[in-house]
């Protein structure tokens, strides 16, 4: 395990540094091209550069190439399948940002992100479950890979309600996967998780309240796909499910409360509303979707910064539960 | 921290504990389950049955989670409406 710490640390540093350097010029370029989003949770409604998440595949390539020189050749197929998964989902995100994909097309296309893992055969159809131990799912497991990538990418995409929320919670999720990789001795997964952690932390610096950049669907979908791919490649499926409980709960209740797949612009009513004092309130309308942000705000109206922090704290809590789950997998 | 927000943490904790209990149930009862046909076909049918029962357990877990979440959410909304009116 110690041997993988060096390439993983190198990848982390490369990823964080390249992201930190690359985001400002990309944001400038997006603003110049008119690719901006309105920050709806601020009274002044400022325009913020969008689609900055396009930097993820670039910075990830830099980090993984740096780490690749230091890992054994046997790790190459796993790293390649991981990168291709992120790249495919990022391309779907770009399409969604620029053209706006339909509510059925987006999950279907993101599921294609699972194909490199299937094609390169880099998965292990024997997931380890706490208490149960190693299970054999030779037929079901490969079928569930595209589904898992679609679920994690779309769950992260739906859990991006306010500044810094998605980038902050994904930082915690990658840290959790890195710690679980160490606990379970998954060397390749540690390299992948730390590469993504470097990116997510640098992104959080720019995306935290008050956001200077928006990740766009390209960012949230590809970060979600990265979480799913690390979980599959590192055989930490159950750890990822527990760590992502707030995001899964959010996506699940949105879908069940609306009753179908939908796009944000199709919503008859927003789940939250902003008052003149910059505080966000939960909508009491029966027509608005049930989101986790609305649930938190129903408990207590708060400012955007507090809401993001609450969301991140919930992810941190579920991540602790995930690490305990990883412990049960070891014993 | 406000008590109402602590409830959301409580839901996460409860859902996690139930998941672990279901995993123990699966280990004790589901995995050893075999149909009384000692043939290759019987082995396949046993595997299919275990898979379906496993999926049923997972769906029941998800349904329980949804119910718990929605119940708590509408309680919070009702309290909020009362406060606003």
Task: Describe it.
The complex is a heterodimer of chains A (331) and B (85). Helices cover 65% and strands 6% of the residues of chain A. Chain A has 331 residues and is mostly helical. Chain A has 2 domains: 2-258 and 306-330, no CATH class; 264-304, no CATH class. Chain A is globular and about 55 Å long. Chain B has 85 residues and is an all-alpha fold. Chain B contains 2 helices and no strands. At the A-B interface, helix 11, helix 12 and helix 13 of A face helix 1 and helix 2 of B.
Gyration radius over CA of chain B: 20 Å
Overall number of strands of chain A: 7
Largest sheet of chain B: none
> Quick one: overall form of chain B?
elongated
Rounded mean pLDDT of chain A is 92
Number of structural units classed as domains of chain A: 2
What brief labels describe this structure?
heterodimer, A: 331 residues, mainly alpha, 13 helices, B: 85 residues, 2 helices, 86% helix
Topology:
The complex is a heterodimer of chains A (331) and B (85).
Chain A: H1 2-32, E1 36-38, E2 47-49, H2 55-68, H3 76-98, H4 105-111, H5 115-120, E3 128-129, E4 133-134, H6 140-158, H7 165-184, H8 187-207, H9 216-233, H10 237-243, H11 245-258, E5 272-274, E6 279-282, H12 292-299, E7 302-303, H13 304-330
Antiparallel strand pairs in A: 1-2, 3-4, 5-6, 6-7
Helix pairs in contact in A: 1-2, 1-8, 2-3, 2-8, 3-4, 3-9, 4-6, 6-9, 6-11, 7-8, 7-9, 7-13, 8-9, 9-10, 10-13
Chain B: H1 3-30, H2 40-84
Brief sketch in words of this structure:
The complex is a heterodimer of chains A (331) and B (85). By secondary structure, chain A is mainly alpha-helical.
